[in-house]
Amino acid sequence: xxxxxxxxxxxxxxxxxxxxxxxxxxxxxxxxxxxxxxxxxxxxxxxxxxxxxxxxxxxxxxxxxxxxxxxxxxxxxxxxxxxxxxxxxxxxxxxxxxxxxxxxxxxxxxxxxxxxxxxxxxxxxxxxxxxxxxxxxxxxxxxxxxxxxxxxxxxxxxxxxxx
Length: 163
Fold this sequence. Notes:
Layout: E1 2-8, H1 16-27, H2 38-50, H3 54-57, E2 65-67, E3 76-81, H4 86-98, E4 102-105, E5 110-112, H5 135-161
Helix pairs in contact: 2-4
């Protein structure tokens, strides 16, 4: 299971709905709606310097990636695994601002604008929230309960075996 963040430089959407429309035109209609800009590859490289590609780390359980982001100067899709830490999200948002890259969260939906660009309905905070991942606390609590049950069961079996 993963969630996505999508990055590009231009055009700069004024709302999450405008960003969604750009993606629809890109995916469904095959339109080349995103402008090429070397800042996007610099952004991706900076992100990968903080969180290396899966190919470079093997099956590293601490990696935030569900899939390594592909290189492009127009559009980069970041597929993050469900266990990605909030720190990774904050780092990606911070680096997007540094490189003046638009960052779209289709799960929100939400648009993080580059510093000094746009106002209106664009979010200018850099605090991705676990609210967009409401299943995360459920999985954490469920996993803890399963581990507790397994531990109690193992203790009971061990106690029964020593009698």
